[in-house]
Amino acid sequence: MSESHTPAILYVDDEATALKYFQRALEPLAPVLTALSVEEGQALLDQHADRIAVLVSDQRMPGAYGNALLSYARDRYPHIVRILTTAYSELEHTVDAVNQGQIHRYIQKPWDIAALRMELKQALELARLRREHAQLLREKLVVRQQQVIASRVGMVYTLCAGIGGLVSCLPVESYLAAAQLGGVAPPEPDWLLIDHADLTSAEAFRNAAFALAVREHLDEIDQRHADAQPERILSMLEENFGAACSVLGTTGVHFRDGADLAEFLASPSADVISSQHAFWMAALLWLGRHGWTLHIAPGEGGGVQGKLGRSDTMLTPAQLAAWVERF
User: Quick check: is 119 in a domain?
Assistant: First the structure.
């Protein structure tokens, strides 16, 4: 492993002699970065946070105490193991730092070199284990979020069939084609939904709320346009999306930001689906009920474009599975 990727120790102390002493004693274990003040320590943390495994800070320094630096590291770089070193006379501040969860250990000055090396060796090992655990957890959550996307693709069919009825022209492909063009990537893992049961519950309530909103918009469209003229749906889309949507002639519509059409698939489980997006699904369902659809294509100059046309036949299980794989 190159030195630039070797886990390093950052030691902060306003005494230059202490920095040199610490560096000589600990560099056989790991590269040691040093700073003479809290401000310098913060700058090094921000610059080298990806390789700093352990932060050791003296407590009493001009300008700011070491526990302020440890608090800064805790808030921004929680993977770093934090250690406070202090004289016995400053023990009160050390206890405060421990109680506030800012540090892993404290080491009293003057140091016993053998004990100091042992403490730092254990801290480096703890930092390694933290990094490995965090990486495994992130990989697990990313896989789970990918599974959520696949489940949501299937849910699009369920919602369409449940709300639109088992007619021959459910708008599943139009909806998924628009979402694909809009861009669907697994959302950033939601660290509050690590538990599978919590995630499943959040998804269920999210789906139910979305289905209710779609149903309400579909009833609204039925009331306003009982004559079943599909061109009127385009003007209603423009009305609901505002400047983000424009009608093209009498049979087309353009969405400037395709992400608006991918919200149900792409947004985090805790987010409420917007009324605009629910109306988009309702509009597609209304068209499908009357034998129409929007054929989706990339928009000129970006975005997503839809053109009115006669709807396709019912989606088959194999076709839906193919859509799942695309996301």
Answer: no
